Amino acid sequence: MQRPGRTADAVKLEKRLYHREKQRMYRQQEADEVQFLKSRVRELEAAIAQHAQQKALRTLPWREVATGLADEAQVAMHQTRLLKSQKAVYKELAQRMSTWVAKNLRGIEKSLDPSRPSWRNSTLLKEPEARKLGFDWISQQLYHNVDRVLADCGFPPPTEHTSFDEFAVRETADDTFQYMWRHQLYVPVSLDVAIASARKSIYYYLSGVVWSPGNGKFIDSDMLKEVSPTMLYSHTVVSEDESVNLMWREFPVRDNRCVMVSQNIHDDETLPVINRQCNRQFWVTMEAVDETHTKVRVLYVNSQFSKKTATCRSTKRLRAGGFWTFRPTQRTISSRIASSAMRQWPVSNFSSLACKPLAAKSNRSVCSILVGRR
What we know:
nine-stranded mixed β-sheet, coiled coil
């Protein structure tokens, strides 16, 4: 007699073989179906190609031709209107910019001189595209002349390692005065840290706190983003007759050097006319000496006040800035004059970096008057 355990194993083995054969047959059916579908696809593609070839040999109905030509005519007319509209806009922009350039370049004979009115007097138009071009042109002009201006204003060659803090007054060719603050130092921080510190100081300066706390505001922010992501323009009302319109731009770091520029805008078609004002410009350059030290150069140029009708007297300008004891013939300047001049340009953030000269040949902190015709 056979044991029950062996019979159960045989039944289980038989079921297993049955299911295995069933799975094999199912997989074979799937493979056959895939093969059939591939073959069908090839047949249909051949039929489509043959049909397309036969259709291409036939002439299109005139209605289809007319409809296609009408559609193309509508597209062409729309493009023509757009081009004519763009032409009118560009023509008007070219006329505006020609007038603007002629106004800003009037009086230039040889090179761009920071003491000449043609360099100082900056105008912005109202029309958006012309306005953006004006912002870009003025800032690019300051940027591409930075090295020449620094040399012209008494900075030593870039290879000379000196630290100094100087204030100077220069009489220009048109019998007006130009006030300059020159600052060069080496800070024991990286270039990125120095740039961040400069941005903080300049933002404070542009906000108008120096002239009229609470009355400064940043304008044209959305427009300036189309010119440069690192560009600001502020408007500060100082008094009924005086306002300060300052444009600032930071240019991208090139060759381990960052340049920031700023220019006071004298005539802005979107803002009220300014009766009493002075020219303000500054250049800031920061160069990486190594990974932990940065060379900082700052030039701040300020002219005497002027009005639409005439230039203010120099003594009046000096008193307006806190200069009570100055005479054009003096060769020294009091500490009161120096501190008043320094308040025109805040650089406390650089000082807070524990700045000190790095391998400097000389270190001077001088406040001097330099009077002489150019």
